Amino acid sequence: MSIRPGRVALLVALFAVAVGVAAWSGQSWTPASEPMADEPRQVIVFGMAPLGFRDLEQGDTPVLDRLLEEGAVGAMSTRTGSRVSTPEEGYLAIGAGSRVRVAAGAGVAYEAAEQLPNGGTGATLFQEATGRPLEGGIGAAGAVASVRRNDGSAVRSHPGALGQALREAGRSAAVVSNSDTVDAATGATIVDRPGVLALMDEGLAVDDGIVAGGRLLVEDPTVPFGRKADADAVVSAVERMAATHDVVLVDPGELARAAAYERHVTEEQEGRVRAHALRRTDDILGRVLPLADEDTVLLVVSVAAGGDGLRLAPVVAVGGGLEPGYLVSPSVKRSGL
Hints:
The protein is of the alpha/beta class. It is 36% helix and 16% strand.
């Protein structure tokens, strides 16, 4: 199954027209829109990053294709402090609600009880990095440098704002995310769990979640770095977190691993690697999709389009009583953008 080109082409066309109108008039317009009938009980964010519209034309993603035809859709441009956003910077920007910059190693995050190679745990590493005990199930120790990098900037809000707002509103958050890779020279694991950056609070903690590679990954010599998301483990983790938390973010990490692997393969092989990663991610999306119902919104997003040229990424929302159509952003104020 492949996506019918009409709706995707229309989204890109809307972007081009909107940019042209904005450049000509210098003003924005607010499209007619319908609010959600009821406030959803829960939101599940399914991250697919990096992912752009070109992937929809070249990849095999039957589940996402169907959602783009049947759900509320839009074309999203993630605004960060860099010219081209990475998954780490994109998730950090979602958590900040503002344009921010990321520092190296931001995706280093551990579960509190996760064992580290040096004999410590995620909780002890967090305390060494921050000087305070971890108050949550996951600590984003690697985010310290990114927070410092944005201190004193003129942005309206800072990393951790979303998680802090959820905490203060009495809402709980959980993350299921692992994009770990392997150092080609040493074979050591390069820890990367960027989804944590979106839901951490100002204390750099997330209430709950599963991010440890030993719990979410399985060995496979045919995939990038010899590791891939264990679909059964990922789906089981999401179901567990969704049973008790208000906001759950899941990113299987397959697309990020494929992107990191690109420099190790030929251009021809690069396309195959990415296509297979897309299909594995789409399969997991299909298994998470049943969680979307009248009370739960499933929001599929890409915080980094990847590649060059037009850096737009698809975003689609289903469940929660949403009707098919185009999403509207209160900041952009243009239908479908």
